Amino acid sequence: MDVRFLVEPEPWDGTDGARLRAAQRAELDARYGSDDHEPGDAPTAQSVSVFLVARDARGVAVGCGGLRLLEPGSAEIKRMYVEPAARGSGVATAILRALEHEARRLGVVTMLLETGTAQPEAMRFYEREGYHRTENFGPYRGEPLSVCYARELR
User: Is the pTM of this model over 0.90?
Assistant: First the structure.
């Protein structure tokens, strides 16, 4: 784990997590030109088994990410987000590694995620971190704006 950031579980409905998720939604709405860019069920406190918030050295929440368990042995990364001012600092990698750690703890061997065609920096990030493009899964099948990735945890 990156020592510059503390990444810990927090309640889904906590103030910082809600603020970060709202900022993510606003950014994606602007990128896609609408608020209708996420196929499938939106994540909730009931469907996200693990929700992590990353804090910088001052204790300020700068990023988040969650895990939604799917079929046995697989999980989907949900609401992975880093505030623009903290991008490039290593916090995204710290969050991703913490999510993978939690996934292993829960018996997950396959990590899945969906991002979108208007998020090239997210695609580059996941590819750099060992995720590979895969066929769109679940609610993302047939969705032209969706790009899906997978990684086997070993």
Answer: yes
Quote the DSSP letter at residue 84: G
State the first-to-last Cα distance of the chain, in angstroms, to the nearest integer. 17
Q: Phi first, then psi: what are they for 121, rounded to 5°?
A: -70, -30
pLDDT tens-digit series, residues 39-86: 788 899 999 999 999 999 999 999 999 999 999 999 999 999 999 999
User: What is the spatial distance between Cα 150 and Cα 135, in angstroms, rounded to a whole number?
Assistant: 9
Report phi then psi at 89, rounded to 5: -95, -10
Separation CA 86–CA 154 (nearest Å): 29
Q: Give the span between the Cα atoms of 53 and 5, in whole angstroms.
A: 10
Residue 81: C-alpha distances to residues 73, 78, 105, 110, 135 (Å): 24, 9, 22, 21, 23
* Closest to 64 in 3D by CA, of 102, 104, 91: 91
Q: What is the mean pLDDT of the chain?
A: 93
Would the pLDDT of 37 be above 80? no
**What stretch of H or E contains 70?**
none
Nearest to 112 by CA among 54, 63, 71, 51: 71
